[in-house]
Amino acid sequence: MAKMSPLLTLFVVLLSSMMIHHLPVASSTKWCVASPTAKEKQLQDNITFACSQMGVDCRPILPDGACYNPNTLLSHASYVMNAYYQSHDRTDQACTFFFPNSGTFTTTNPSYGACVYPS
Ligand SMILES: *[C@@H]1O[C@H](CO)[C@@H](O)[C@H](O)[C@H]1NC(C)=O
């Protein structure tokens, strides 16, 4: 094999590492969040439902919680929909059946600051 110049080698290494980072990983993590198109009433119903379920910790969206701000239905619904999804075996149905039209998947970690979305 021909000897590659150090510069070329560096280029190839950079290129492959860039490609590796863009490969979808098999165990790709996803989160169930509220769709911005959902109606407020639906989001409120969805929050009430999710928070009434075993295993769903809704404390973070309470006034003293890390996810209280921003204090919007969309943000609170996103947090609890994901909490419901994560605590119910992460089946697609846990997001789409109980939150039809209002729940959606994202592969971008929705966590911010001290508000950590379970995954
Ligand atoms: C969640 O909201 C959707 C509407 O987007 C509604 O159809 C569904 O019944 C709600 N789910 C619950 C459990 O309240």
Task: List strands and helices in order, with pairings.
Blueprint: H1 6-22, E1 31-34, H2 40-51, H3 73-87, H4 92-96, E2 103-106
Antiparallel strand pairs: 1-2
This protein binds 2-acetamido-2-deoxy-beta-D-glucopyranose.
Quick overview of this protein structure:
This protein has helices spanning 6-22, 40-51, 73-87, 92-96; strands at 31-34, 103-106.
Tell me about this structure.
It holds the Pfam family X8. With 119 residues, this protein is mainly alpha-helical. It has a domain of 78 residues. The protein has 4 helices and 2 strands, in the order αβαααβ. It is elongated and about 65 Å long. Bound molecules: 2-acetamido-2-deoxy-beta-D-glucopyranose. The site of 2-acetamido-2-deoxy-beta-D-glucopyranose has 10 residues, from α2. The site of 2-acetamido-2-deoxy-beta-D-glucopyranose (NAG) has 10 residues, from α2.
Biggest beta-sheet profile: 2 strands, antiparallel
Ligands, ions, cofactors: 2-acetamido-2-deoxy-beta-D-glucopyranose
Strand content: 5-15%
C-alpha termini separation: 45 Å
Q: Kindly report the oligomeric state of this protein.
A: single chain
Structural class: mainly alpha
Number of strands: 2
**What order do the strands of the largest sheet run in, or round the barrel if closed?**
1-2
Question: Which spans of ≥5 residues are poorly predicted at pLDDT below 50?
Answer: none
Shape: elongated
* Computed Rg: 20 Å
Counting H and I runs of at least 4 residues, what is the number of helices?
4
* Element string (H = helix, E = strand): HEHHHE
- Helix proportion of residues, in percent? 40-55%
**Overall pLDDT score:** 89
